[in-house]
Structure formats: C-alpha cells, structure tokens
C-alpha cells in the first residue's frame, strides 16, 4: 500500500502489488516513526551513557527495480523528499545493504516511469536503540549466550544435543548496526546406520 505513516516497533513494507509487478508511474511514500521517541530521556538517565535514542533499521529481503528509471529513495527524518536528508537512492536488482536512520524517523519514496515494470521490493523495518544491532533471536532447538546487542557485543550460539549448528557459532554487533553474520540455525544431526 502507498502513502502510509507507520509506527514501530516493526513491520513490512512492499512495493505496490508485490510480489506481482508494480504499476507504471507509481509515486508512493512511507514515513516510519519509532513507537515511543519520548523514551529517549529515560534511557539516557538509566544507562548513564551515550544517547540511546530509538532509530529505524531497514533490511531488504527482495529488490527488483528497473535500473536507472525506477527508484526507491530512503531518507532520514519525517520530511519526505528533502534532499539534505537523503541517505540512499536505490535502483536495479541488487538487494541493498541494511540501512539505519540517525534519528527516530525514516522516509521512503518509490517512483516509477511509464515503461517497464519489475517485481519491486520487500523490506522489513525494526525500531532499535541507537548504537545497537537489534535482537537477532535464538535458533529453534538452540540457545544463546549473551543478551545485549550494542556495538561490539558478541553472542554465542549452540544447539540441543540431537542438533548441529549451521552457520557462525559467534556473531558480533558491528558499528554499522549489522551483525557480523546471520543468526545460525540448528539442524537435526544425520544418523548413519550400519549396513
């Protein structure tokens, strides 16, 4: 759906008609606002540290736009189209890297021409604390050591006895507000039977 004002803590944004082709001459706007930006002051006092304001983390799952003609512009704050607040102008078929706002709001502007239509995009947004990566979760049939998600924090994962870990055993929250690897998964160990 187009022209939406969204509030955290998380959600999904897709181009119109996704996963079917988007329309010609589309002009869609989304403004995402952290659920409770007023909580900033309380966190600063409680943590006695740097500003821990909520920010918006945007992660793309799919991205398929006509290169150079159809664009998704992502900006900081609530002033849609303000060139001073543009973070990225995205186009083409490469799934973009994670994008994190610098304050409690982020805007997206999707514009298409009248010629070629592709599948569009699907992205998830999540409200996270500034200086963090957000909670990556715990794998099914696994456990996690570590419960903080700030820059530099490391999480360790392991699986229940009948399962084995696929992926990295440890991941670290980087300054880009992205984990060093995806959350691992626990898969059932294969049992070999004697012949």
From TrEMBL:
Please name the SMART domains in this protein's record: CCP, CUB
Gene3D superfamilies xrefs: Complement Module, domain 1, Spermadhesin, CUB domain
Tagged with keyword Cytoplasm: no
Protein name, please?
Answer: CUB and Sushi multiple domains 2
Entries under PANTHER family matching the protein:
PROTEIN CBR-CLEC-78
| Disulfide bond annotation, renumbered to this chain | 159-186
Which InterPro entries does this UniProt record tie to the protein? CUB_dom, SEZ6_CSMD_C4BPB_Regulators, Sperma_CUB_dom_sf, Sushi/SCR/CCP_sf, Sushi_SCR_CCP_dom
Q: Which CDD domains match?
A: CCP, CUB
State the PROSITE patterns in the record: CUB (PS01180), SUSHI (PS50923)
Which ranges carry the CUB domain? Answer: 2-128
Q: Where is the Sushi domain?
A: 131-188
Disulfide bond is among the record's keywords: yes
Q: Which UniProt keywords apply?
A: Disulfide bond, Repeat, Signal, Sushi
